[in-house]
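Chapter summary example: a protein plus 0GY.
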Amino acid sequence: MTSTKTPGWLDWYAGPSTPQFQVPTGAVDAPCPVFGPGDEFPFAPERKYTPCDASKQQLYALRDQLGFARNVVVQATCHGADNRAMVDALVHSGGKARGVATVKRGVTDDELQALHAAGVRGVRFNFVKRLVDFTPKGELLEIAARIAPLGWHVVIYFEAVDLPELWDFFTALPTTIVVDHMGRPDVSKQVDGPEFELFVKFMREHTNVWSKVSCPERLSLTGPKAILGQLRGEQAAYRDVLPFARRIVETFPDRVLWGTDWPHPNLKDHMPDDGLLVDFIPHIAATPELQRKLLVDNPMRLYWPEEAH
Ligand code: 0GY
């Protein structure tokens, strides 16, 4: 790799354990980015961090080990609007991956068509200030209007405290919207407190809004304490995230997605074992029906609608 990793960067966990929870047949890991490899697909000059490499081969090996059938590969901010690494992963997936791109206002119709042909089905708008510079909302609305006729959706990433300010913009989007990581709730607050109630209201009042119930490792304050012993025992790790994820899964079972988020950018304290993250799933989706919706039916409807039942 040509670039030096951001100081303190934690590499993804090599040799993850094999989960005890068996995901249903046809399960989709949505989302996960690829990073580089930097020698082949250089990172964007405007990036806010430099990751370790995380290649398509490594992603697909993880898919097979964890028992998933497909992936959704999402464009990470370290690649800016240069989608080549993500597209390369899609076209070498044998049809088992679809993607989410980042595009700029000047993107041409031909470029959008080429992305579609490669398997892209959405664009990502990022509002997390430590990750991206500000893009005027007018530009984002223009992009949303351009991708809507393709049947694509918009993935949004923001912090819970910013939802009130972003509400009008989000509710003006003309497509399906997929929220990253439940809008990053502060899980030290109450699950029925005003902050998370606003997010639930967002989903309840706007039936085009979906949520990924991903990234307990990113949201948790209690962390993976004694992860090996606890996650497979009575008490799950990341227990402070559980009520939030469970509430969203049970209230909106047809509009939730789950993903490992491998290779887990920007984690400072611990790097999760992806096998143990899979064992978190039955704690947030307790029944086989909820698990099937979360892992198969919903992602298939969004990313492979031509095959969905
Ligand atoms: C995530 C989270 C992060 C990073 C990105 O595209 C990205 O760089 O999404 C983060 O640092 O919180 O969803 O992987």
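Key point: The pocket of 0GY is lined by residues 76-78, 131, 157, 180, 261, 265-266 (CB under 6 Å).
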